[in-house]
Description:
Layout: H1 3-10, H2 20-30, H3 32-57, H4 62-66, H5 70-89, H6 92-97, H7 103-111, H8 117-146, H9 163-184, H10 194-208, H11 210-213, H12 219-229, H13 235-254
Helix pairs in contact: 3-5, 3-8, 5-10, 7-8, 7-13, 8-12, 9-10, 9-13, 12-13
Amino acid sequence: MKLTETILAIAPEATGAAPARSRRQVSIQSHWREYGMEGALLGCFMISACLFGILYEFPGSPVRQAIESDALRRLLMGLSMGLTAMAIIYSPWGKQSGAHINPAITLTYYRLGKIPLGDALFYMAAQFTGAVAGVALVTVFLRESLMDPHVRFVATVPGSAGVILAVIAEFVIAFLLMSAVLYLSNIPRVSRFTGVAAGCLVAIYISLEAPLSGMSMNPARTFGSAFWAGIFENLWIYFVVPPLAMLAAAEVRLRFPGGHSIGCCKLHHDNPKRCIFCGANGGHDL
Length: 286
């Protein structure tokens, strides 16, 4: 064995060749800002959902009293949350964290090899924490309105058509959303519009699909409401179906031409914010 090989084997730290485990630890420690941003962004999404839910559905709301049509109120809710999603994706924090704000999206990018396991786990933990915290914050100030039966902490539950249709609907909308994100984000001339497309789909889904499944696509979003509402029946749908649908979308995308050249996992990447996934703008700390 050569002398240099012996030194590397005995004392890798002394030569700057830190073990892989050490590199992962340092990496995770330096990414806490992105984890915090992910949690805060989903918390903001939940705050927005709760406030708009009260505005459009609470019987004491002047908007609810003025608009009797359920369909029109759903349309307004869809527009409100679609714009919220866009604002989050294009916000400074969204540009830096990637604005997954959904464990199913993070899991899908992990499957595609675009996010390390450690980052993926911390992202998902932050997302669940942020969702619960967001609803909690609104509960502190507007508990009576938020817990009203017409609002119910904006919980996502199967519609009157039943569980089977809710499962099918959740699969379809999650599959289409992830397919759109993977397709658009990898076309340079239109990638900057990925967030717009995602927001538009959220608006359409809430307006049209919500009566079927409640329109979740997001295990953390559903859990954030269910935790405070105490509504855990059929929670499995929103924990199982959206991740499976998005993973299926990834598998389909991999089989199309160019599928194996999927880029970074940010929904908006062409910005000066650091990227901890591909190292852009000083994102790689080691």
